[in-house]
């Protein structure tokens, strides 16, 4: 029997925005199949996983800093299509880290898992993914940074047509079967993907950041919010305000404007050490930001907030797909389903797996 995740009615305009090839049922494992090819990717609502590789495990296993409870493969199956990876160069291998902590996955292993999911449809590969990334060991050493840039560019180039050239108005149809790499750290020797400029960690974010294509001279406006340490009530309030402000802006943005909104973060630190996140801190934050974001997307009859009239853009979260986790009502499953359902206009959408 199909497990019902969400049954949501959304009435939204379809100007440069939504489209569906389905009358009402959407399989969460392949939900992009139901989106029309002509829709610009910038106008989608896309669920993403922050530090996605931590769900495959950290080294050492008991280290704090886990932000996901599912593997890359499981995250895909629960509907995630944007993956945040932090590869660093160890010798000649790009391994994924979270801060100083090494995960059990190399960058190539993680990307290969995604490509296998994309290609599971054979010649009719209708899915795609976006990979957000940065050099987790980036520093003032120019030589080391250049080695990373060269290694990353060489790897992405080796993917050939499976890696996409960025265009601000790239459509769903143009991206199908591929991965779009968007990097906060510049890489070289490759015309695939794009670089991100203007990232910051202010509660107010940056609504004038930029995505610059490596394959042409095109750039896109990027709106971002990534305030990752709301460790007290005042900061948590600022975090929620930042999320909602960007959701409002994304819903009313023009085609070709991209949005990356982090509901992720940690609400408490590990052993009280400033700046060092704890697993519990990530769960506490998720239990606050996920319900608030879900309420925004679905609408709130009590507060008389109507449903949004446009896309959410990319929403990055911790513990994606998790309903409850170690005493916290995270609602990660409902949030992923609501983000996906927001892509379907004038349709009673049943999300199932």
Structural description of this entry:
It contains 7 helices and 18 strands. The chain is α/β, with parallel strands linked by helices. It has a single domain, classed as Phosphatidylinositol (PI) phosphodiesterase (TIM Barrel). The strands form 4 sheets. A 9-stranded mixed beta barrel has the order 3-5-9-10-11-12-13-14-15. A 4-stranded antiparallel sheet has the order 4-8-7-6. It is globular. The protein starts with a strand and ends with a strand. The model is unreliable at 1-22 (pLDDT under 50).
Radius of gyration: 19 Å
With strands numbered from the N-terminus, the spatial order across the biggest sheet is: 3-5-9-10-11-12-13-14-15
Q: Can you identify the CATH class?
A: Alpha Beta
Integer average pLDDT = 89
Distance between the termini: 9 Å
Strand content: 15-25%
CATH superfamily: Phosphatidylinositol (PI) phosphodiesterase
The name CATH uses for the topology is TIM Barrel
Count up the domains: 1
Number of extended strands: 18
H/E series: EEEEHEEEEHEHHEEEEHEHEEEHE
Helix content: 10-25%
Count of DSSP H/I helices: 7
Task: Give me the CATH architecture, please.
Answer: Alpha-Beta Barrel
Low-confidence stretches: 1-22
Structural class: alpha/beta
The largest sheet, given as strand count, sense and whether it forms a barrel, is: 9 strands, mixed, barrel
């Amino acid at each position: 029997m199909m497990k019902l995740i969400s049954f949501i009615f959304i009435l939204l305009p379809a100007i440069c925005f939504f489209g569906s090839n389905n009358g009402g049922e959407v399989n969460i494992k392949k939900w992009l199949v139901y989106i029309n090819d002509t829709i610009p990717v910038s106008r989608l609502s896309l669920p993403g996983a922050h530090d996605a590789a931590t769900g495959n495990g950290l080294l050492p296993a008991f280290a704090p800093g886990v932000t996901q409870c599912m593997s890359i493969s499981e995250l895909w199956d629960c509907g995630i299509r944007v993956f945040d990876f932090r590869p660093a160069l160890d010798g000649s291998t790009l391994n994924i880290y979270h801060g100083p902590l090494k995960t059990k996955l190399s960058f190539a292993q993680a990307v290969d898992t995604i490509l296998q999911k994309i290609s599971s449809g054979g010649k009719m590969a209708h899915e795609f993914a976006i990979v957000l990334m940065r050099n987790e060991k980036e520093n003032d050493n120019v030589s080391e940074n250049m080695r990373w840039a060269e290694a990353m560019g060489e790897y992405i180039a080796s993917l050939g047509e499976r890696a996409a050239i960025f265009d601000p108005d790239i459509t769903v149809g143009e991206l199908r079967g591929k991965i779009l790499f968007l990097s906060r750290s510049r890489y070289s020797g490759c015309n695939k993907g794009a670089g991100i400029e203007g990232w910051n960690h202010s509660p107010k974010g940056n609504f004038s950041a930029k995505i610059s294509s490596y394959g042409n001279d095109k750039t896109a406006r990027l709106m971002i919010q990534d305030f990752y340490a709301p460790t007290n009530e005042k900061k948590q309030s600022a975090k929620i305000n930042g999320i909602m402000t960007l959701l409002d802006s994304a819903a009313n943005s023009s085609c070709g404007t991209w949005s990356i909104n982090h509901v992720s973060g940690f609400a408490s630190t590990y052993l009280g050490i400033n700046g060092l996140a704890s697993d519990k801190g990530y769960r506490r934050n998720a239990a606050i930001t996920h319900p608030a974001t879900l309420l925004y997307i679905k609408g709130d009859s009590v507060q008389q907030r109507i449903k949004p009239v446009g896309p959410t853009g990319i929403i990055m979260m911790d513990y994606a797909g998790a309903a409850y986790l170690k005493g916290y009502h995270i609602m990660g499953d409902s949030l992923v389903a609501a983000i996906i359902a927001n892509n379907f206009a004038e349709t009673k959408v049943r999300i199932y797996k």
